[in-house]
Amino acid sequence: MHGNRDRPSLTGHFVQFAGRRLGRALARLLAKLLVWSAPVWVPVVLALVAVTLIFSAMPQSGALGGAQPGDADPAIRQAAESAVAEVNAAETWLNSPDGSREHLGQLADAYGRDAQLVLKWSDIYTPLLARALATGEDTDLFSRPEAYGQRLQELARRFGPRFEYYPSTVVITDAEGNSEEYAVYLLRRSDTLAGTYEYQYERVTDQYPDGSSRTYDRPAGQRLVSQSYERLDAWIGENIDPKDADMTRRMILEASRAFDTRKEWVDWMLSRYSSAFWASGAMVPSELVPLFQEAEEKYGIPWWFLAAVAFTESSFNPLAENPSTGCYGLMQVAPANWQEYAPQLGFDVQADRDNPRAQILLGAFLLKSYFGSVDWNADDWRDQTLRGLTFYGGFRTNGEIDAAAMERCRNEYAGKIWELADAFRGTGTGGTWPVPGHTQITSYFGWRVHPITGERKFHEGIDIAAPEGAPVAAVAGGMATVNPDAGGYGMLVTITDGVHEYRYAHLSGFTVQSGQVVKAGEQIGLVGSTGASTGPHLHFEVRVNGQPVDPLPLLRPGGEHE
After folding, report:
1. pLDDT tens-digit map of 384-424
2. Residue 110's closest CA among 28, 191, 43, 165?
């Protein structure tokens, strides 16, 4: 720690933010680590706790939460962002059935899972900062962004991902039996900082109430075929401490995740607006919906309740990990429960650790064992689940579940789950159709010849034909931002719900304002032809972590709630 005394802005962050929630959580973990660890490792633990507290205060832009960054901090972050941007799409390959390979140069998974696995600027910043704080070496780099930038680039190249895709055909059939196709790319294999994964699919057909259908490749699972974070562990062994790489990795990862803008946004929304108003089933990632439904069939717990638990526990992040308990994944299953029950349910403890299907089914299995029989159609289904949620959420009074523990659970945990469950149940799976009464899609997601430039270009959404001035409805609730001149988008409304970002482009008018919280189905604008457009239509996009994904799996034809 002595080598950091010349870094006043970061040490200042440590003092200023030591009382933050994350700091308190890590303080509990620190107490355990100091008991478990040999004395020689204590400085590393202290250094990494400092990293997390420091990093949680670093601003995204300006002084988030009141932090005052050092002069070099913005330049260091910019250098880290540039370094990961150079590598994240550098190794993206399309493997065709005929054996040919094409370099794509961009993320392309139609479900956006590659965007969840790319390097973030914090993934390379935090390890280097941890090394400097733990060893006292290279601390002068913090005041020399140009030198630090070289180290960041080296680490980005070492940790950079590689994605392999295959082409998949989606078939849309209308009620009269007329079909049209479009191609998407799906992940087959990914080699990332988190590990190397292989992905499985099943060919399915979804039938819609209006008689139309969609046939496509649906994710059926993924398997980890390497050790988790083996590249990070190797780097830790070379640069920090080879004896306790696992604990060091957990601390570095928590520090890296401390500045999670999506989670901070969700927490902010939940603290100010009832999720019963703005939350909707469109928030649930489309590839997870059939997994929640499978768990409902097996264990009798409704998909909308399981989805609410998953969002509350992990914000639908299958890599989420609680640093103080080790609980992991979408459902935040405790390590001991995973070790004991995963094999009983037919899953491999190591290979299926990051498998969303395994995480959801095991979480549902545990909830069923805690709930017993629940009448989900009864008025008191919430009270029937309270004791089980108290157990699942870890609420105790002197190690026991009593009335006080259940009341804390009701106020701090169960109430949030119930509110979200009601919202998901009320809106159903998927999102409201964005142009009610107008369902003709003139251009699908994926590669196409651009209608204006004539060049082959990736179309990042879908185009829906509609007359000038037709009402545009919010697919999902959330907070709106309007931009009257968004370049090629023209007049643009963007809505964010903490899971997806929805873009409505080429509008002719707005019926919402920036900062307004809207609910699913609410009118937000009017169809137009502003920006780069050849005629009136709605261009609609969905993004996950900034990456465009195929919007169709998220939508319900027809435009009305179920």
Report:
1. 999 999 999 999 988 889 999 999 999 999 999 999 999 99
2. 165
